[in-house]
Design goal:
16 strands; 3 domains; Double Stranded RNA Binding Domain; about 40% helix; TIM Barrel
């Protein structure tokens, strides 16, 4: 792309993203995401639909202050048979404490006649009247032309008439929506180019859904064909298969095109953190393979690849990971060689003599343990501990002497079937024995709670550690109930750190303990804790 023009970024995470199956934002969540988007440098943040639900009503009652972005309220054009000045739905939209409004209206003749059951002329009047009233009351009025591409392919003249009705009403933006996500990039490019002959591109936007995995491609095609606003969501959230992913579009536009966007270099470095903030609020693990911001986006596993990246990162990295707030990962696995280990050591600030025999021993140990079922390419915290232990660099914070888990499945006094777990642990901390008992909603939860209960008086920094994700994989299914299992645990703390540890054993609880032990040890090591901690506390 060689075009040089200003592209306006419009985020609809707080509405389109909220339609994702399993996503339920609170008003507090929405405010936090809006502030993060504002800090990132997007031009518009769509806050939701005033009057549609209590959460959006609370959000718009006290909307967060924006420094860079313009907060947008979303709604639809007036209803058939009502005037724009006397429509309750439109009134809620107009009364929202925002400077901009985006209204959706039909642009497909099929929907107008079948879904709405009104005349084409009435639909055009609904669009024009609503935009005119909004334009008189707010700084900006926008029209989302729903199913525009389907409408254009059905009746080109009518789809364009819908856009011109909004333009005549004073719309700042007319957004072409691929609402069912079924249009392909070549179609988008051709149609947008034709539309841009009728309506200037600086008034046009694109809103793509991802049902054919082409939302980002369709957005780029539309921009290249002339539109100047692009709509999308963080991490591609959205109904069905999602919307265009702004986390991919923003760095692509800034780093790979001549388009100008309102995101500075410093703001771009917040991209990974903003993406992960959303996942944190949704209580889910970030996608490791996400473009630009995923843990695997700049991860190198094969020894030959690592050697090449060490010489010149451009061989396997299309951009510098630090530009988007990410970092390079040299992954440890049974495919690793000396290049991987040495690169990983440099990343960890471990100084090692290349002639040290422990180096080759560590490489052999990694390959042997991966053959047993360990997966260090996805558990970098466990690899760091393995490496540091090989060179004597991990304090002995605690040792498990024994643990016992009991599960109790019974009917309670109200006739309800309940299952409870109880864990008893005995730990050795600097020669002192500590025993604790804790209950949990499962054996691993009970074990983690008991261990933490024993360690917190000595290592108080563990207070802010939590388990963020827990995954189990059966490695030898042919062994039935005696199969070897691999447990991967993601942990997180208030400092925004997230780390992964691994444990392998024929006993799932033992495998879980091994991963828990590594997770707690890594956290204490990063916090600079001393072995034994505060032993003035009663044992």
């Amino acid at each position: 792309m060689t075009v040089d023009k200003r592209i306006h970024l419009f985020d609809s995470t707080l509405r389109d993203g909220a339609q994702t199956q399993g996503v339920d934002f609170s008003a507090t969540d929405k405010a936090a995401i809006a502030r993060a988007l504002d800090s990132l440098g997007v031009d518009y943040v769509e806050g939701g639909w005033p009057g549609a639900n209590p959460t959006d009503d609370v959000f718009f009652a006290e909307p967060p202050a924006m420094s860079n972005a313009r907060l947008v309220a979303f709604g639809m054009t007036r209803r058939p048979g009502r005037s724009a000045e006397n429509d309750p739905g439109l009134a809620a939209l107009l009364n929202a404490k925002v400077d901009a409004i985006c209204m959706v209206g039909k642009a497909w003749d099929f929907h107008v006649e079948i879904a709405l059951g009104i005349s084409r002329e009435e639909n055009l009047a609904m669009i024009g009247d609503s935009i005119a009233v909004a334009n008189a009351r707010k700084a900006e009025a926008m029209y989302d032309a729903e199913h525009f591409f389907d409408g254009y392919k059905s009746d080109k003249a009518y789809a364009l008439a819908c856009l011109k009705a909004a333009q005549d009403g004073g719309a700042r933006w007319m957004v072409l929506c691929d609402t069912n996500g079924g249009t392909l990039p070549d179609e988008v490019a051709a149609i947008v180019a034709e539309v841009a002959k009728e309506i200037p591109g600086h008034l046009l936007g694109i809103h793509s859904h991802n049902d054919t995995e082409n939302a980002v491609a369709n957005s780029l095609a539309a921009l290249n064909a002339g539109v100047c606003q692009v709509q999308g969501t963080l991490n591609g959230l959205g109904e069905r298969c999602g919307n265009a992913n702004l986390v991919s579009l923003i760095p692509t536009l800034k780093l790979k095109t001549n388009y100008e966007i309102g995101v500075s270099d410093a703001q771009m470095e917040k991209l990974t953190g903003t993406s992960h903030l959303l996942d944190e609020l949704l209580n889910r693990a970030p996608a490791r393979n996400a473009a630009y911001v995923g843990d695997s986006a700049f991860a190198h596993k094969g020894g030959l690849h690592v050697s090449a990246v060490e010489k010149d990162p451009r061989t396997y990295e299309h951009v510098d990971p630090t530009l988007v707030g990410n970092r390079r990962h040299f992954v440890m696995s049974d495919q690793a060689g000396r290049s991987n280990v040495l690169a990983r050591f440099r990343d960890l600030d471990i100084d090692v003599d290349l002639k040290d025999t422990r180096l080759n021993a560590l490489i052999d140990q990694v390959k042997a343990r991966e053959f047993e079922g360990f997966a260090y390419d996805g558990a970098e915290a466990s690899f760091e501990l393995l490496a540091r232990r090989a060179f004597g660099g991990v304090p002995g914070y605690f040792t498990l002497t024994r643990f016992r888990i009991m599960d109790d499945r019974r009917w309670n006094a109200r006739g309800e079937l309940v299952t409870e777990s109880e864990a008893t642990v005995t730990l050795d901390v600097a020669g002192q024995q500590r025993m604790e008992v804790a209950a949990g909603n499962g054996p691993v939860h009970a074990l983690d709670t008991a261990i933490r209960k024993a360690l917190l008086p000595i290592y108080p920094s563990l207070e802010d550690m939590r388990l963020a994700d827990y995954k189990v994989r059966i490695l030898t299914p042919q062994a039935g109930t005696g199969a070897v299992t691999r447990v991967m645990i993601d942990s997180a703390d208030r400092d925004g750190r997230r780390w992964t540890t691994v444990g392998v054993s024929p006993n799932i609880i033992d495998a879980s303990f091994n991963a828990l032990h590594d997770g707690i040890t890594w956290k204490l090591m990063q916090d600079g804790a001393e072995a034994g901690g505060n032993l003035t506390q009663p044992a």
